[in-house]
Amino acid sequence: MRAARLSVVTAVAMATALTAVTACTSKSGDEDGERVIAVTATDSKCETSKKEISAGHVELAIENKGSKVTEVYILFPDDRVVSERENIGPGTKQRVTAEVKAGAYEIACKPGMKGDGIRQDLKVTGGSAAKRDPRLDKAVAAYRSYAQAQADETLPKVATFVAAVKAGDLEAAKKAYAPSRIGWERTEPVAESFGDIDPKVDVRADGLEAGQKWTGWHRLEKALWQDKKIGAEEKTLADQLVTDLTDWQKRVGKAEITPTSMANGAKELLDEVATGKVTGEEERYSHTDLVDFKANVEGAQQSYELLKPVAKENAPALVTELDKQFAALNALLDAYRPNATSYEFTAYDKVGAADRKKLSDGVNALAEPLSKLAAAVAK
To answer: Considering the entire predicted model, what is its pTM?
Structure first.
């Protein structure tokens, strides 16, 4: 689940990291180019330089002039996500590339990364659709199969977790908890594209909207590790988790997936790591953050590997750097598990500050070149 808000320390750290990213990414393209929409976000406004553009690739040149960390989305009318960029610190700039077909869309800025956001209409007219390398169509098809397989494989693991909860078996439920989340964490940007499923199954207490009932994995995590009890309400919530994840499983095949959304999704997964896993906020009761961390990296790498043939042709130096940084980050993670096939990682509360800093540096080193992947495949 994306962080609902950041502490002041985290926000400053993210702003510093994202400024470094911006220094590299904001130079690509012309601020006033016909395929670029400038988005100026503040705490109360979301201003866009264009209200209409022809179908094809579009690039949002985002500047956060507000005091809050924000995120910016391109949305379908039904709130499905076309593309997004999260964790844009105050005073920083980011770019995001997307592929849009003719139709009605909205650009949304979410100061504080909560709520429905401040929205501007975007009309996409006929014109020429983005020309696409056949290899990219193959990559999209392969990724769609991958996302569906992750959902299909998640449900039996969730069933094991839920059975333990309903049996009142605290230790068995704890053991089944982290494995039940791996497939979700690998493909979370797909689930988040639907808008309504993620808040039901993966929200943390600090991410709840006013009046929202807390359901899903993290509500049960709290019961197991902090409250150390399973009551009637937890058993009901366990059944609800199966219902909501079955809905996700059925809808994965309908997700809007493009080469640029795959690339942006890979970057979003690294953002998830930076704002939730490295900080220890995601799994604050179970401390199974490194399992989620690894799954996020695996999901990002899967997207990258599928897009790599085209990216290598368009940006060979970028591919060399991405290969290097993925290998480095995976090596860091391997130090916290008994072997390369195990998902039994060291509890994150046992990882010291110096080692957390190394993991954070590894994430940042990968996130910077990964932010350029969408532009590389959109050439």
So the answer is: 0.77
